[in-house]
Design a protein that fits this description.
This protein is 73% helix and 3% strand. It is built from seven helices and two strands; from the N terminus they run ββααααααα. α2 runs antiparallel to α3. The protein is flat and about 65 Å long.
Length: 141
């Protein structure tokens, strides 16, 4: 999501900033895809505090990334998925037992639900903003 495409300058971007070009909806979709990494980290036994930091990275990416044009540049630089992979590398130890979803607890379902609701709200607001701007432009012409 963050480094699959190499630009001519050698800088790497991924699908996340490209999805972000679709106002609101692209960032919400990118956030939902990014939650899969948090889900896998939770199953591996990564501590709740680290999982919450991972979710915060995703929310920052979705919120700031929803700003038209500037948000796309932010998405290309922020790379929340790479940040989250580094967190997993720092806090996962193979001796940790894998957890089932039952053992993780209901809090992670609530956290994922919060990410879905917040990114959905952001998507809705951005789409409404774009539509209202298009309406203003149409009336001005």
């Amino acid at each position: 999501m963050d480094q699959s495409i190499v630009l001519p300058s050698g800088y790497r971007i991924g699908l996340d900033p490209l999805l972000g070009v679709i106002p609101g909806i692209g960032d919400a979709l990118g956030a939902l895809i990014s939650c899969y990494l948090v889900y896998q980290a939770a199953r591996l036994g990564v501590r709740k505090r680290v999982l919450l930091r991972m979710l915060a990275n995703i929310l920052i990416d979705a919120c700031v990334g929803s700003i038209p044009l500037a948000g796309d540049l932010f998405d290309a630089a922020w790379k929340s998925n790479m940040r989250n992979l580094r967190l997993i590398d720092q806090h996962y130890h193979p001796a940790m037992p894998e957890r089932s979803l039952r053992r993780i607890g209901g809090w992670i379902v609530g956290a994922f639900g919060a990410v879905v609701v917040i990114t959905g709200l952001i998507a809705y607001l951005v789409v409404q903003f774009v539509l209202s701007m298009l309406g203003l432009i149409h009336r001005a012409l």
